[in-house]
Specification:
By secondary structure, this protein is an alpha/beta fold. An 8-stranded mixed sheet has the order 3-9-10-8-7-4-6-5, sandwiched between helices. It has a 7-stranded mixed sheet with strand order 14-11-15-16-18-17-22, sandwiched between helices. Strands 19-21-20-23-24 form a 5-stranded mixed sheet, sandwiched between helices. Helix 16 links the parallel strand 9 (424-428) and strand 10. The longest helix has 24 residues, at 83-106. Belongs to the alpha-ketoglutarate dehydrogenase family.
Length: 944
């Protein structure tokens, strides 16, 4: 504003009148952050009196109220005119400012977003002139435009009002005023208001837009005619998704991105595969006709992934669509993990080179908690990826019958995104140019601010939930309108014809050419690179085709191990350690010298150090992994003087791979899914997720069932993820005893996962090294200990670490005469030490105890070789801590029986079970009951 006008405005009675609340709100914002208000208001507030010694946030409002009151009573200096005589225009000036603010805040609530025109939206008084004490009689009055990006400092109210309506109430509804960062809000305002949310596109751009719509519609028509009634989850009604993705990929490629990872649900997946990623239509037709060849059990068409390269103005870009199951939103954190792995491989800490684009369904986006978890991860150190572009394919109806009042409690399905202050752009899918604009806007925002952004693509589902569904039974009015609705392409063709931009011959020619390319089996994706740069791919060939028991030498030279130990135990002299941690590191120094036996925490960190020195990245996440839930790891040290951190494993002498360790947010599902995605993209890394307690894995069961245990068989997707699940009955009650070993055992088949229960530090050392060093890439599930972390007998020597190997089965270690052994107990985990203590106490030397350290894949030959050393066995007993209906028993007894039956019939060995009685609860809730149960089955096992 001009200085004279400003002076009049500041000294007007409206400041202490009807606008007092408005100005006071501005003042409140100014006190919190002076940069959050316009320059003119900030300059004025800077001159106001303050209460001395008060911090800005505590400054009372009484000075400003008093100042306004005094100003209202005074005449304007220099002209002798009383304030009240000049206040009408100035009062309206502030009302105009309020009007602008209202449209930025709530204009989206009157936007024309529903392509079907069925929405019944409530009246928004804030957007009416009368609410702001303005009227059409003021339309020709000139006002200051303030922060509006209208192209000039002054405009009539008519121009201001029309500009606001065009910008915020047409085909795009923007929600961004919840963002606290002033620069971000101003950036969005400038981008939208400067073109009224409707830029003028060149004819070539519009033709390309039409061509992409023609491709989207053409594929669905072709599939519908060739395979009527076959489920394909088509894109009819949402065809604008194809030009949207096309525009985004070209945009981020122009910014320098080298990879785009795409996650999406069923709907439109086949269309994206063909028209964006360039899958050959012939391959898709073969899948429909049952001609495709699969390895493993495979999966349905609309779960499949794909990868290809396309050319953009910024060079070649690799596209990867993630595989995903029917649990729709779970793919989101998997994509984020894959993106982070790619960024780490490129040493990209800002997210410039790899961009995630994730598509969602409206009901799933609003309804599934993993969406919130993934948003919450977006700016954390362990999981940030430089911002994700989210696209909600909004069908305006849930699975089949859901109404809005049943599907969510919020106005929009996208409201959850506000928790991370992500801007949300709602757009009418039947306005392709508006779709193109928000696509470019979202890509630009992500590039500028490296934060998540959401596009709510308002469309509809022409065929119902799938092509076999009859939706009118539950949505009669919606599908009555859909039956009359012209397709998006038809509407756009009509628009272009009306404007004289094209003739009908060109539109028909596009459709004919696309149909012919499909029939000829040609690639139909624009910009597809037919001979891609293979350097952009990860080479998985070294990890293919290996048996589960492929050999690996996990030994390490003693001198090298000692050097690694020195590095792990070295802490800067001026780094103030907490007393207990200092003692732990002193003990580790003595362990390295052989003066103390090696405990669990030291063996584990030595395993990581040895892999880092061999060039293998190590990544560990989970709740409290830095120190370890049971304070055994302390891989991240915290200075007691300034709270700075030091990570010895990141500071080993000489060259080493990256060691990343992060305490995660309090999430299991999204975090485990993220680590799964990471490990499927980075083969030369030991990727570990540790549950705070083993039962916490319950919260991530979807990831375990649908990805970890079955991903390789369904999709051919290799994964070397390691899960550390603290497991063991310590009397801590039912919620913290069991990692639910039985659930993992039930999932075991076709050598899909490894399940281990190590009982010594040497075992965990060699198990972790084996997981990384051998070329097999299969998930490893570890029933990790709790009390064994400090058990005086659960120790190893440096020699066992340097010169040993992982043993699937550990034979009896006490000096027993094997010819006198008549009873053999086979067990896993902590219960071994309880059994051995009791046997020693009672001198039961006719009983041997054997540890099964890998329960799956089952080590038949190893166990048989151990049992064969006991010639006079009469009975073999499986003993476990868990109740009979839990643990490994039900899914292991047939394997144990197979080994026992392999001996000559004259042995006549019997197999028995010892453990807790069947129970619906994992464990006892009282220590006394826990101990009673323990003593009972120990006595049974040892025949006491």
């Amino acid at each position: 504003m001009q200085n004279a006008s400003m002076e009049l405005l500041w000294q007007s009675s409206h400041i202490s009148g009807g606008n007092a609340d408005y100005v006071e709100a501005l003042y409140e914002a100014y006190l919190d952050d002076p940069q959050a208000v316009p320059d003119e208001w900030r300059s004025y507030f800077d001159t106001l009196p303050r209460v001395s010694d008060a911090v800005p946030s505590d400054t009372p409002h009484s000075p400003i109220r008093e100042h306004f009151a005094q100003l209202a009573k005074q005449p304007v200096k220099g002209n002798g005119v009383v304030n009240n005589q000049v206040s009408d225009h100035e009062r309206k000036q502030v009302r105009v400012i309020q009007l602008v603010s209202a449209y930025r805040q709530r204009g989206h609530q009157e936007a024309l977003l529903d392509p079907l025109g069925l929405w019944q939206r409530s009246r928004v008084p804030d957007l009416e002139l009368q609410y702001h004490q303005l009227s059409e009689s003021d339309f020709d009055t000139v006002f200051q435009t303030g922060s509006m990006y209208i192209g000039r400092d002054q405009a009539t109210l008519r121009e201001i009002y029309d500009s606001l309506r065009q910008t915020y109430c047409r085909s795009i509804g923007a929600e961004f005023m919840h963002i606290v960062d002033t620069r971000e809000r101003a950036w969005i305002q400038q981008r939208m208001e400067s073109v009224r949310s409707k830029p003028v596109y060149e004819l070539d751009v519009r033709k390309h837009l039409l061509e992409r719509l023609t491709a989207a519609e053409g594929l669905e028509k072709s599939l519908g005619s060739k395979y009527p009634g076959t489920k394909r989850f088509g894109l009819e009604g949402g065809e604008s998704l194809i030009p949207m993705l096309d525009a985004m990929i070209q945009r981020v490629g122009g910014f320098g991105a080298k990879e785009v990872v795409i996650g999406m649900a069923h709907r439109g997946r086949l269309n994206v595969l063909i028209n964006i990623l360039g899958k050959n239509p012939t391959e898709l037709f073969d899948e429909f006709e049952g001609k495709a060849k699969y390895e493993g059990s495979a999966d349905v068409k609309y779960h499949q992934g794909f990868s290809s390269n396309v050319m953009t103005s910024g060079g070649e870009v690799h596209l990867a669509m993630a595989f995903n199951p029917s649990h729709l939103e779970i793919v989101s954190p998997v994509v984020e993990g894959s993106v982070r792995a790619r960024q780490d491989r490129r040493e990209d800490t800002t997210g410039n080179t790899v961009v995630p684009i994730v598509m969602h369904g409206d009901a799933a986006f609003a309804g599934q908690g993993v969406v919130m978890e993934t948003f919450q991860m977006s700016q954390t150190r362990a999981y940030k990826t430089g911002g994700t572009i989210h696209i909600v394919i909004n069908n305006q109806v849930g699975f089949t019958t859901s109404l809005q009042e049943d599907a969510r409690s919020t106005e929009y399905c996208t409201d959850v995104a506000k928790m991370v202050q992500a801007p949300i752009f709602h757009v009418n899918g039947d306005d392709p140019e508006a779709v193109l604009f928000v696509s470019q806007l979202a890509a630009d925002y992500r590039n500028e601010f490296k934060k998540d952004v959401v596009i709510d693509l308002m469309c509809y589902r022409r065929r119902g939930h799938n092509e076999a569904d009859e939706p009118s039974g539950t949505q009669p009015l919606m599908y009555k309108q859909i039956g009359k609705q012209k397709t998006t392409r038809t509407l756009y063709v009509d628009r272009l014809l009306e404007e004289g931009a094209i003739d009908k011959t060109l539109a028909d020619q596009m459709a004919d050419e696309y149909r012919q390319m499909l029939d000829d089996g040609k690639h139909v994706a624009k910009s597809l690179v037919t001979e891609p740069n293979k350097a952009m791919f990860v080479d998985w060939t070294p990890y293919l085709g290996h048996a589960w028991d492929v050999a690996s030498d996990t030994r390490i030279e003693a001198k090298e191990l000692t050097a690694i130990a020195d590095g792990i135990n070295s802490v800067p002299a001026d780094f103030a350690l907490q007393r207990q941690v200092q003692k732990l590191y002193q003990d580790r120094k003595e362990m390295a010298l052989g003066e103390q036996p090696v405990n669990w925490g030291f063996a584990e960190t030595l395993a990581y150090g040895s892999l880092l020195k061999s060039g293998y990245q190590v990544r560990i996440t989970g709740q409290d992994v830095g120190r370890g839930t049971f304070s055994h790891r302390h891989a991240v040290l915290h200075s007691q003087t300034d709270a700075s951190r030091y990570v010895p494993l990141q500071n080993l002498a000489g060259a080493q791979a990256d060691f990343d360790i992060y305490d995660s947010l309090l999430s299991e599902e999204a975090v485990l899914a993220f680590e799964y995605g990471y490990s499927t993209t980075q083969p030369k890394a030991l990727v570990i997720w540790e549950a705070q307690f083993g039962d916490f894995a319950n919260g991530a069961q979807v990831v375990i069932d649908q990805f970890i245990s079955s991903g390789e068989l369904k999709w051919g997707r290799l994964c070397g993820l390691t899960m550390l699940l603290p497991h063991g009955y310590e009397g801590q009650g039912p919620e913290h005893s069991s990692a639910r070993l039985e659930r993992f055992m039930q999932l075991c088949a076709e050598h899909n996962i490894q399940v281990c229960v190590p009982s010594t530090p040497a075992q965990v050392f060699h198990m972790l090294r084996r997981q990384a060093l051998r070329p097999l890439r299969r998930p490893l599930v570890v029933m990790s200990p709790k009390s064994l972390l400090r058990h005086k007998e659960a120790v190893s020597s440096m020699e066992e670490l340097s010169n040993g190997q992982f043993q699937n089965v550990i034979d009896e270690t006490d000096a027993l005469d094997k010819s006198e052994v008549t009873r053999l107990i086979i067990c896993s985990g902590k219960v071994y030490y309880d059994l051995r203590d009791a046997r020693r106490e009672h001198g039961k030397n006719s009983i041997a105890i054997v540890r099964l350290e890998q329960v799956y894949p089952f080590p038949y030959e190893d166990l048989r070789n151990v049992i064969a050393q006991y010639p006079n066995l009469k009975k073999v007993v499986w003993c476990q801590e868990e109740p009979r209906n839990q643990g490994a028993w039900y899914n292991t007894r047939h394997r144990l029986s197979r080994v026992i039956r392999s001996f000559k019939p004259e042995k006549n060995l019997l197999l028995g079970f010892v453990g807790r009685d069947p129970s619906a609860s994992p464990a006892a809730g009282y220590m006394a009951l826990h101990n009673e149960q323990l003593q009972t089955f120990i006595k049974q096992a040892l025949k006491l």
